[in-house]
């Protein structure tokens, strides 16, 4: 019988908790040490895992040793290694020791802070840490608890957009005097970032045809054009529709474009919309004074969000959302429940974060962000951003520092390559110049496939204004200069092969 | 300068990752060893933490030692200790070593599996493990990937309800031929569990007045009455409204009531609604054959969800959702994005979980549930459920096994106490019998406060049919028989004090 005998069952025994956790720490340490040995993008075929694992759960317990063996043999080959220093796809998801320590504490304490009373520290630390973040970003006090606003930690930008959209919708429907007006409400966002806002708008009941992805173009470096926006709004108003919500983006997903927040803010005020600033990726950079101007105008917005789980050394997941008038969020999302009634909430001296988000239950994510900030300090967090930007610059156009390595000329200096959208942060959008423009997509798609299938790096692509390009998102935690140099060498090597063929 | 010097900045150095992680493991181990020394419910006052922490982030890095000191001195006193064996409030949030190991691996690998290609193992393991869970629950194959349906891991029941509601809404609006019909759609759920479904319905744009919380009563042990439901539906249809979605609950939050799934299913079919079964709490118990009959009729439903993060030894957060026709979910939640386009998705040989949930980004939660299942095996998971139920029975009415301890007579045997709603799982709903019925609420509220403020246990309350009662939710991972006996002694002691006063 042995370990199958239930009376020995102690699923949270402190000693075995410690022993087994340390074995997993060793496993992860080893993974980080060897991470460059794996092909960055997984090479498995669809359905590979069902051939390796049983199709139903085991009846008896299995050992950690067996489980870790399966993780090594069956799971790791199926991973695309986001923590690899050679991962340049999508946007990076920065893990760090500090973020991991915070996750461990969050998971170990495993408290559920839906309201203040259910774990006061979870609510209070969250309020403190979102204020810390807000101050690091030099947000006006109208967004801070220490001022007249407040913030919350969500899991994703989509959740932040869903919640603020719902708040805006309910506020508008009240003003318009009837729920049947929901079909008149219109949501606007840059064509560059449409999918999150579009999904969120659909989710909260906005008619599909009432979502406007404002076309962007090379002429504005793919920033939302206030003129196009105004034209779309005017047309909607003429058609009897009601502008509801405008999302401005600082650092779009496809090419890192920055909407002119100041100018958009003036428009939204004119039309009484809700104005949300989505700084999911580039918001973290705005902790550095040299990038902060991109947020100018945020003081006019209703809400702003950014994801520390992208570029701010915070393991998944963590999204900061600040609001000028959290009241509207709470009006829209709060529900009464006898089972949650308590004197602290009724005294109105505390806040209950369940009314600031979609779900009732919530993790103690604040612990993670708090440890990330303290363990690095603003100085190292800024250093992290700046070193990634500097590597992106190097990749883009800094001149060859070693004349013997002729391959290192980098994108902008190489006559075979060109920058497609000017770089603002650490995302480089480039392509191989086609001899005939109509072959550009095919050529660059082939080049991207060749790079990715080498296993030595992983990038993704984008399309703006009809132009297909390759995205090198520089900023994985472990990426160093030599990885960026190697990426360039790899690209050149694969490009030469394509030319020769 | 020392550690402030940025060139030494290595936020994911494997060696310090390992050393510091192990220090945090030691910290958490120590926390579990001492967990009974803390008052279960935190005694801090609103605003306590802002007096202890600086109001802005540090400029330079701080040591782990300093941070852990602050966790001990400032955070732990502000926690309500959900992992304490004396935590009997709300529903338990079961941490376990296995769940923690899974969280560590998830956080350490830190992959973002929004689509198949972004980390195939994340998608494939999730599909496999939801099938494992489905088979453990003896769900019909129409809910399994190995059959004709499929499942996904969400973070919360609310998310599962939001997504299925949106799918139902979009399907209905298409049938009705116009978005303006959204104001006609009506959602039904038990008055026992209204808040999650009500919040979700409001979020997706259902008119507030079109939510029906079906009244329940002592006569049906607070199960939803098919007659009341049918009456409400008929009335709505007469008024020109359209029944959209019915939520049946197996194990309601307030008192653990079970809706008659079979009978509800017959009604929903008649009216062409979407039928969702919410088994957030009690679903885990249905892995034991003796509880499975509560799910009878689920084969007729459209979707079912349960939260392993409650009673299934899975650290926060994890909610399983199964659907008969995942297609409707995907139709409602998918969005195209050039940046995510890839040949695997376009071949339709894989599934992309981003289209099964609210957010784009997603963690590798499947790893956690997979390790929980393997490390315990079905046998120990059933043992866990059964031992909690057996402790609840003991608390409720098992006879005194030690005649010298006269205080141990337990609720149902004690002439001063009574069971308010018959127990089905491990939640005991009881109250002290008042001499005058009108004093019942006050008396039990005082008793509950006396117990909770002792710091020796934490319970919450409920109200059904106008009766205030105390909930003892038995099933924290560390709870053993003697904790339940101590809880009863504590209640008796506090009750005697109240009587004497």
Question: Could you explain how this protein is built, in words?
Answer:
2 copies of one chain form a homodimer. In chain A, strand 11 (458-464) and strand 12 form a beta hairpin. In chain A, the strands form 2 sheets. Chain A has a 7-stranded mixed beta sheet with strand order 2-8-7-6-5-3-4, sandwiched between helices. In chain A, strands 1-11-12-10-9 form a 5-stranded mixed beta sheet, with helices on one face. With 501 residues, chain A is of the alpha/beta class. Chain A contains 14 helices and 12 strands. The termini of chain A are far apart. Among the domains of chain A are: 2-37 and 43-78, dopa decarboxylase, N-terminal domain; 141-333, Aspartate Aminotransferase, domain 2, CATH 3.40.640.10. Chain A is globular, with a radius of gyration of 25 Å. Chains A and B meet through helix 1, helix 2, helix 3, helix 4 and helix 5 of A and helix 1, helix 2, helix 3, helix 4 and helix 5 of B.
CATH class of one domain in chain A: Alpha Beta
Structural class of chain A: alpha/beta
Per DSSP, the total helix count of chain A is 14
Low-confidence stretches of chain A: 1-6, 399-408
Compute the separation of the termini of chain A in Å: 64 Å
Helix content of chain A: 25-40%
- The CATH topology assignment of one domain in chain A is Aspartate Aminotransferase, domain 2
- Averaged pLDDT of chain A, please? 93
CATH homologous group name of one domain in chain A = Type I PLP-dependent aspartate aminotransferase-like (Major domain)
Query: Under the CATH scheme, which architecture of one domain in chain A would be assigned?
Result: 3-Layer(aba) Sandwich
Counting copies of identical and different chains, the oligomeric state is homodimer
How big is the Rg of chain A?
25 Å
Shape of chain A: globular
Biggest sheet strand line-up of chain A: 2-8-7-6-5-3-4
Main sheet summary of chain A: 7 strands, mixed
How many individual β-strands of chain A? 12
Strand content of chain A: 5-15%
Biggest interface goes to:
A-B, 159 and 160 residues
Order of helices and strands of chain A: HHEHHEHEHEHEHEEHEHHHEEHEEH
InterPro entries (chains A, B): Aromatic_deC, PyrdxlP-dep_de-COase, PyrdxlP-dep_Trfase, PyrdxlP-dep_Trfase_major, PyrdxlP-dep_Trfase_small, Pyridoxal-P_BS
GO molecular function (chains A, B): carboxy-lyase activity; pyridoxal phosphate binding
Family (chains A, B): Belongs to the group II decarboxylase family.
Protein name (chains A, B): Tyrosine decarboxylase
């Amino acid at each position: 019988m042995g370990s199958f005998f239930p009376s020995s069952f102690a699923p949270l025994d402190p000693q075995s908790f410690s022993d087994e956790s340390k074995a997993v720490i060793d496993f992860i340490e080893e993974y980080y040490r060897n991470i460059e040995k794996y092909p960055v993008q997984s090479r498995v075929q669809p359905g590979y895992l069902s051939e390796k694992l049983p199709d139903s759960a085991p009846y008896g317990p299995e050992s950690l040793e067996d489980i870790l063996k399966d993780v090594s043999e069956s799971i790791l080959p199926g991973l695309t290694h986001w923590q690899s220093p050679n991962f340049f796809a999508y946007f990076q998801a920065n893990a760090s020791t500090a973020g991991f320590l915070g996750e461990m504490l969050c998971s170990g304490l495993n408290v559920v802070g839906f309201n203040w009373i259910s774990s006061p520290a979870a609510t209070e630390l969250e309020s403190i840490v979102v204020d810390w973040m807000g101050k690091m970003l030099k947000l006006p006090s109208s967004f801070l608890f220490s001022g007249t606003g407040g913030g919350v930690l969500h899991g994703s930008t989509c959740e932040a957009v869903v919640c603020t959209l719902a708040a805006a919708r309910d506020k508008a429907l009240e003003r318009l005097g009837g729920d049947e007006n929901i079909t008149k409400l219109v949501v606007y966002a840059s064509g560059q970032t449409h999918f999150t806002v579009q999904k969120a708008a659909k989710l909260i009941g906005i008619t599909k045809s009432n979502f406007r992805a404002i076309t962007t173009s090379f002429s504005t470096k793919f920033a939302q054009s206030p003129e196009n926006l105004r034209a779309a709004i005017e047309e909607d108003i003429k058609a009897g529709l009601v502008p509801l919500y405008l999302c401005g983006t600082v650092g779009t997903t496809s090419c890192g474009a920055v909407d002119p927040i100041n100018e958009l803010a003036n428009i939204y005020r004119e039309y009484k919309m809700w104005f949300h600033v989505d700084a999911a990726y580039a918001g973290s950079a705005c902790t550095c004074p040299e990038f902060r101007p991109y947020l100018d105008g945020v003081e006019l917005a209703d809400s702003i969000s950014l994801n520390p789980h992208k570029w701010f050394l915070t393991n998944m997941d963590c999204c900061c959302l600040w609001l000028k008038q959290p009241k509207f969020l709470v009006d829209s999302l709060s529900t009464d429940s006898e089972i949650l009634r308590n004197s602290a909430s009724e005294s109105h001296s505390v806040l209950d974060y369940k009314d600031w988000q979609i779900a009732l239950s919530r993790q103690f994510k604040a612990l993670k962000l708090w440890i990330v900030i303290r363990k690095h300090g603003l100085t190292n967090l800024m250093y992290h951003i700046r070193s990634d930007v500097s590597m992106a610059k190097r990749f883009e156009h800094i001149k060859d520092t070693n004349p013997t390595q002729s391959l290192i000329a980098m994108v902008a200096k190489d006559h075979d390559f060109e920058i497609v959208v000017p770089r603002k942060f650490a995302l480089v959008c480039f392509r191989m110049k086609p001899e005939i423009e109509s072959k550009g997509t095919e050529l660059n798609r082939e080049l991207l496939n060749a790079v990715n299938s080498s296993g030595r790096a992983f990038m993704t692509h984008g399309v703006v204004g009809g132009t297909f390009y390759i995205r090198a998102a520089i900023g994985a935690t472990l990426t160093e200069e030599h990885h960026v140099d190697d990426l360039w060498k790899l690209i050149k090597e694969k490009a030469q092969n394509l030319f020769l063929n």
